Amino acid sequence: MTWLVGALLAAAVLAIVALPFLRRRNLPKESPDAVEALEAQRQAIYREAQVLYNDWTVGQVTDQEYQERLRAHRIRAALLLREEEQMLEIEERLEEEVLALRGNTPLDVAAGDDHECPNCSQLLAEGVSECPACGAKVTESARG
Amino acid sequence: MAQIGTITLYLALALGVYGVAASLVGKMRGSTQLLESARYSLYVAPAMLGIATLALVTAFLRHDFSLEYVAAHSNLAMNPVYIWVAFYAGNEGSLLYVVLALSIFVALAIALTPSTMSHSLPHTMVIMSAVLVFFLGVMVTLANPFAVLARTPADGQGINPLLTHPGMFLHPPLLMAGLTAITVPFAVVMGQMVAGRVGDEWVDLARVWALVAWAVLGVGLLLGAWWAYTILGWGGYWAWDPIENVALMPFLTLTAFVHSIMVQKRRGMFRMWNVVLMNVSFTLALFGIFINRGGPVPSVHSFASSALGWVFLIFLGASLAFSFGVFLWRYSALRGLVSLESTLSREAAFLLNNLLLLGVAFVTLWGVVFPLVSQMFRGVTVTVAAPFYNQLNGPLLLALVLLMGVGPLLPWRHSSWATLWRALRVPGAGALAVMAMLLAIGVRHPLALLSFGLCAMVSVSIMQEWGKGVRSRHSRGEHYLVALGRLIAANRPRYGGYIVHLSIVLLAVGVTGSTFYGAKRDVNLAPGDQATIRGYTVQYLGERFLPKADRTEYFNDLRVTLPSGKELGLTTWRAFYPDRRVASTRAAIRSTPLEDLYIVSSESMADGRVVFRILVNPLVWWMWVAGVVFILGTVVALWPQGGFVFALASADQELAPAPVRTGS
What we know:
The complex is a heterodimer of chains A (144) and B (664).
Chain A: H1 2-22, H2 34-57, H3 63-101, E1 115-116, E2 123-124, H4 140-143
Antiparallel strand pairs in A: 1-2
Helix pairs in contact in A: 2-3
Chain B: H1 2-29, H2 32-61, H3 68-73, H4 83-87, H5 91-112, H6 121-142, H7 171-181, H8 183-194, H9 203-231, H10 242-267, H11 271-294, H12 309-329, H13 331-334, H14 346-378, H15 386-406, H16 417-440, H17 446-474, H18 480-490, H19 492-517, E1 519-525, E2 530-533, E3 536-547, E4 552-561, E5 567-577, E6 582-586, E7 588-591, E8 595-604, E9 610-618, H20 621-638, E10 644-646, E11 659-661
Antiparallel strand pairs in B: 1-9, 2-3, 3-4, 4-5, 5-6, 7-8, 8-9, 10-11
C-alpha cells in the first residue's frame, strides 16, 4: 500500500513537471511580453514620482531637487513610452503581415491599399500626400 | 508513514536536482519549456516536504516509537500540544523544518518575481534550488528523520523540558525561517550579477525579500528573549550566548543592507557595498547554521546540535568562494559613477550607520569565534562573557541610536551645519528636557542618562517629521487623521521605517532601565519568612507538589505586598525530570510599564526552606511592546506602494501636477 501511494506521488510529480512539454501550443514565453515589461517599468517610475511629490509637499526634498528628479522621471517615462509605442507598432505590423500571408488581410497590404512613409515608416492611409506623423511629402511611388 | 516520509523526501530531492539542472540547461539552450518545467518542479517541492512533515507529525501523534526521532523527542506523557515543538526539537526534524520553510520561500520568490526580472530568474532559481538541494541532501543521507530503530521501545525519551514553553512555538521556527529566508535576497542579487545585470533593477525585489528575512529574524530574536526571561530563571533576556549571537549577526548585516539599499535606489550609490553586505549576510546565516548544528561552542541552545558541522562548514566555504568570486567577476562593472558629495548628508549617515552595525556584528563574531581560535591554537578553553560584549557593543549601539535621531533629518547629497542645527534644535531640546527631568527624579548614572536622552531625541525627531507632514497635508484641507493615514500611505518604506525606529527606542528604554537600575536578591526562605526588595515584601507561604509520569512539579506560593501597600498572590513553578536529570522553572512575574517583580525558585531544601531569586527589572515591559511596534512598522514598510500616480506627459508642466488614477 505504501509503495502504491509512493508510486502515485511519483507519477503525479512527473506529470506536473512534464506538463510544459505536453502543452506546447499554449506555453508562456520565457521572457515577458516586452511591452508589458516596459509598461511595468513606466508604472514604477510613476510610483517613484508620486513618492517624490509627497516628499516635496512635506518638505522632505528641496524645490531644486524636486524639479531635477521630476524632470529625470519624466524623461525616463517619456523614453519608455516611446519605446512601447514603437514596439506596439512593430507588433501590429507583424500581425498584419502574418494575416496577409494567411490570405486574411484586414488592411490588404499586398493589394496596395496601405503603404508607409519613406521617412518614418508610419503606415499611411490611401490617397494621403503628406505623412501625418512626420510631415514628409509622400510621392506616388511610395504610395503605391 | 515512515516510508511515505522517506519517499517524499527523495522526491523533493529529485525535484530540487531537476530544478537546478533544468534551469541551467533551459537558460543555456533558451528553452522556455525546460525553464517552465524547472519552475513547476520547485512549486511541487514544498508539497512533497509538506507531506513529509505531516508524516512525521502523524508519527508523533500515534506515538510511533519505531522511528528513532520520535522516540528521542517524545514520550507517552508528553502533552500533544508540544508535538509541533517536538517536530523541530532535534537535528533531523529541524532540518526537515528548514527545507520545508526554504522550499516555500523559493516557490514564493519564483511566483512573485515581477516580469521585468524574468531574464535573471533562471540564474536565481539555480542558486535557490542548489541551496535547497544541499539541505535536502544532508538530511536524506546523514540525518533522516524517518530512520527506523532496530527494536521499538515501549516509551520514548521525552521532549527537552526547556522546550515546553509557549515561546518555543514560534521562536525557533522563526529564527530558522529567518536564516533560511536570506537565501532568497542572496539568490536575487547573485542571479542578477551572474546574468550581467549590474544596474539597479534588482533593488526593489532584494529589498523586499531582505526585509522579510530581517523581520522574521527580528521577531524570532525578541521571542527568544522573552523565552529566556520567563523560563531560564536568571532574570535576564539576553546572555550573548553563541547561538543568540549567530542569529543576531545576520540580523545586523541585513539591517545595514535594508538601509544602504535605499541609497542605491535613491542615488545609484553603494552598489558594490550592497552586494558585499548581502554576501556577508548569507555567509553569516550559514555560519549560524554551522554553529547551531556543529556545536563547537557550548550554548544553552544545544538542542539541535549534531556531528554535521563539517558538512555545513564545507558548504559555507563553497558559498563564500562562489559569492565573492561573482563579486570579483563583476567588480569593474559594479563601480558607480556617483560619489559621496558631502560627509554631512543622508548618504554619509547611512554609511556611518552601516559601519556601526558591521562593527557590532564584528565584535559579536569575534566573541563567538575566539573560544574556537583559543582552543585551536593555544589548547585553552576560553569563555567570552557578557562584559566583553557590553563594553564593546554598548557604545556602538548608543552611537546607532544617536544616528537614528540625526540621520533622517539630514538632506540627501549635502547639508550644512546651520541646516543640521535648525533640524536638531527641537529634538535636542526634547532630549535635554527629559534628561533634566530624570536628574530631578534621581537618575544619576551618566550612561543611563545619555541613553534615555538619545531615546527622547529620536522620538521627538520622529514626531517632528510626522507632525510636519501631517500639518502640511492638513493645510491643504485634509483632516488630521486622514492626513496622517495618507502621509504613511504616501511613502510606506519611510514611515514604516520610522515606526521600526520607535520600536528600537522602546527596546533601548527597556535595556537601559533593566541594565542600570535592576535590583537582585537571593534568599533562602522557610514557610512564613519574608524578604524585601525595593519596597516589595515577599512572604513565602508554602510548597505544593504534583507528581506526573515524567516529572514532579513544585509550586511555591507567595504573598507579595506592593510598595503601594496592596497585596497579591504569586506562585513560582519548578519541575524536576528524573529520567533526564534536568529541572525546568517558570518565574512568577508581576509586570507593569514601570517595572517587573520577578521571582524564581531554584531549590527545595530538606528542612522545607526554598531558595528564591527575587529581581526588580525596571522598564522591561517596554521591550515586549517594542516587538509589537516592530511588527507593525515592518508590515507598513513592506506593504506594496500603489494607488495614485502622476501624469508625466509634459516636462514643462507646473511643478506639482495633479495626481491621476492609473488603475495599477
